[in-house]
Amino acid sequence: MKTLIRGGRLVDPKTSMDGRYDVLIDGPIIGEVSKSIRRVDDGTKIIDASKRIVAPGLIDVHCHLREPGFEYKETIRTGTTAAARGGFTTVVCMANTNPVNDSRSVTEFIVDRARAEGACKVLPCGAVTRGLKSEELAEIGEMFEAGIVAISDDGRSVRGAGLLRKALEYAKIFKLPVISHCEDETLSGGCVHEGRASLLSGLDAIPAIAEELIAGRDIAIARYVDAPLHLTHISTAGSVEIIDRAKRTFRKITCDTCPHYFTLTDEATLTYDTNTKVNPPLRSQEDVSAIKEGLRKGTIDIIATDHAPHEFTSKDVEFDLATFGISGFETALALSLGLVRDGILDLKGLLMKMTVNPAKLLGLEAGVIAEGAPADIIVFDPDMEWTVDRDSFASKGKNTPFHGMTLRGRNLFTMVDGRIVYNEL
Amino acid sequence: MNWKRKDLLGIRDLSKEEMLFILDTAESFKDISKREIKKVPTLRGKTVITLFYEPSTRTRTSFEIAAKRLSADTINISSSTSSSTKGESLKDTARNLESMRPDAIVIRHGMPGAPHMLARILDSCIINGGDGSHEHPTQALLDLFTIRDKKGRIEGLKVVIVGDIAHSRVARSNIFSLRNFGNDVICCGPPTMIPPHIETLGVKVEYDLKRAVRNADVIMMLRIQKERGGTTYIPSTKEYSTLYGLGRDHVETARNDVIIMHPGPMNRGIEISDEVADGPSSVILDQVENGVAVRMAVLYLLIGGEA
Questions:
Q1: CB contact under 8 A, B200 and A199
Q2: Which residue from A66, A94, A205, A296 could staple onto A70, CB 3.0 to 4.6 Å apart?
Q3: pLDDT top residue among B224 and B257
Q4: Distances A241 to A230, A258, A291, A294 between C-alpha atoms, Å
Q5: Is B113 on the interface with A (CB under 8 A)?
């Protein structure tokens, strides 16, 4: 089975190609990329991508698919369907399922289920510590053999610097990156950013330093043991500054942020809309500006979604009682394209942070449109306006603070390993 | 002016005109409580539910008396008698109550924004009777009423608020009202009880109680919020009392006509000495008395509009 994506503007950050190209897909592999492919075999499916952007499928280094254990929030099937719609062809799912992904059997379950039902590729992230309890290391090697691509206790930090040191050292055997959720729990405990908005709302607050202290601690340990460290969902100006400084002398540090951290401020929480409750919390305008500057400057390498779907009832309560998290797959590309319109990044730079850089972090072949590469391709319209309707989400998680907003930019076509998994063209 | 709001959720939303309108309306209700027959038919046939998820003596009683003096029917639900102990959500409780067609629901809740949630989903008028550390609008209104009554004005005054500002809804609501009328507001307390960024509300911060109260027109004392972890912000209540307990010495450095306020319940001997609480400058019981008139005004404006 062959497919020809014809007439689109190909933007491939890895090869620096930007122009009108046709792409011929042969089975799961990209067969040919050239200015004009006229002669095709009978039976070739033709996709008209004219006036659209053709790009490598997006790679998300941080999401929650909730299976096993929380199938009422999301399943691998619904989550990957949402991801594919949003333009993601590979996603990394965090370990805070039930049971926790801290053993070979859970990793195998996720891999098998994703192979059977996944609309896109799913790469599991294993736990750093057994049960995410920060007591003893999980069986990282066993999970590695079963297919994990990173380790993280996401949802919390690894408590105890000594334990994190061991994890960073041990993960070197497998060249696995350690992904850090930065939060000092003795300083957090609230539900919104500590700032003027929390002063007005009276909600218990989480100061920026709760994130920054652990970012600083984890970087110091990684540097000491010379191990790669990835800091996830960075949200504060202070974190950007710490990471920027660290990167100048230690090159194994990378980090990501999420669309909500460069789109919304803590002002959004003043309505007590529980869909604005997320961890780390939405920060101040100064933080948002620093995140954007960090993206522009390259301090922030990657845009991840931290797609965190929840069932309706867990958000339909008092703000204090609501769960943390935003359902992010289906709005991430549109929100990120805002950076291009604002002149923070050019399109190639944005796609770098959603394809090439994540692939590099995870050591993947993906993230490129070139002959012989896996056919993970999307076609999107960077200017199409659409109104976010959570009820039309493929994700079970309808928890978005962007419901009802008109966004610009929409993914229209997703191909994973040559298979068309989403087509709105 | 015409009253247009469905709910009273916070002072921050209110304009000066709206606050003055409530105070003026309260003025006209104040006499009713002094009559032999303390009842007018204004809200006859109306139903007011007080839904209290936190303990309260003054506020709940005050709302109930206010409603009854206007001839409304009142029902009290407190957390010990409500379904919350059976695991029913606030939203479900509220929806069930709404099905019985009350006209107003006064809610007190430990979590900020709980009244706002009800206001979004219910047609009944929602009155915030205190939500966590957020706001307590009727307290600020009765405080404003008391200040106007005693001082003859509510602008250009030096007002000192002393205590756990960070966890106090009374402090927040009072800061919003007093600043809106252009008063100098000084927040005094240990730094652990002063929230960051408080200066952005236009208040000054002073850690030293003696300096703070000098030449004050109004001193508002707050209690330590034990239920919100208030005692972990200070080494001991004894030390707190030494540093921030209001005594006669302090009052003597304030203006001669200073008034001492407290939203209650008082911890005598901790934040306020007996001689100050019961002294000539204390207007603490006037506050309680005025609370009834202010709450009558609020109920009247919210649900008395069209009969």
A1: yes
A2: A66
A3: B257
A4: 15, 17, 10, 8
A5: yes
Tokens of A136: 């003893």
Partner residue facing B113 (CB), from A194, A201, A207: A201
Please say if the pLDDT value at position B85 is more than 80: no
**How long is chain A?**
425
Q: What share of chain B is helix, strand, coil (3-state, %, to 5)?
A: 45, 15, 40
Closest residue by Cα to residue B263 from B290, B239, B233:
B290
Residue the block writes with tokens 């067969």? A31
- What's the one-letter identity of residue B198? I
The H-assigned helical ranges of A38-160 are: 76-86, 104-117, 140-146
Give the H/E segment covering residue A245. Answer: helix A237-249
How far apart are the C-alpha atoms of B169 and B136, rounded to whole Å? 5
pLDDT of residue A4: 97
A266 Cβ partners below 8 Å, 6+ apart? Answer: A192, A193, A195, A196, A197, A198, A281, A282, A283, A284
pLDDT by residue (tens digit) across B93-138?
A: 999 999 999 999 999 999 999 999 999 999 999 999 999 999 999 9
Chain A 39-58, residues with CB within 8 Å of chain B CB atoms:
none
Tokens linked to A185: 């729990």
Q: For chain A, what is the mean pLDDT? A: 97
Looking at the complex, does the CB of residue A318 fall below 8 Å from at least one CB of chain B? yes
- What residues of chain B lie within 8 A of the CB of A321, using their CB? 111
pLDDT at residue B210 tops 50: yes
* Burial of B275 from C-beta contacts in 10 A (0-12 / 13-18 / 19+): exposed
The residue length of chain B stands at 307
Lowest-pLDDT choice from A410-424, B76-90, B169-183:
B76-90
B111:A320 CB<8 A: yes
- Name every chain A residue with its beta carbon within 8 A of the beta carbon of B195: 198-199
Nearest to A162 by CA among A134, A189, A183: A134
pLDDT at position B183, please? 98
B188 band by pLDDT with thresholds 50, 70 and 90:
very high
Give A196's contacts in chain B (Cβ within 8 Å).
Answer: 197, 200
**Per-residue pLDDT at B49 exceeds 80:** yes
Q: In this predicted model, what pLDDT tens digit does every residue of A175-196 receive, in sequence order? A: 999 999 999 999 988 999 999 9
∠ CA A410-A413-A414, nearest 5°, is 115
CB-CB contact of B109 with B143 (8 Å): no
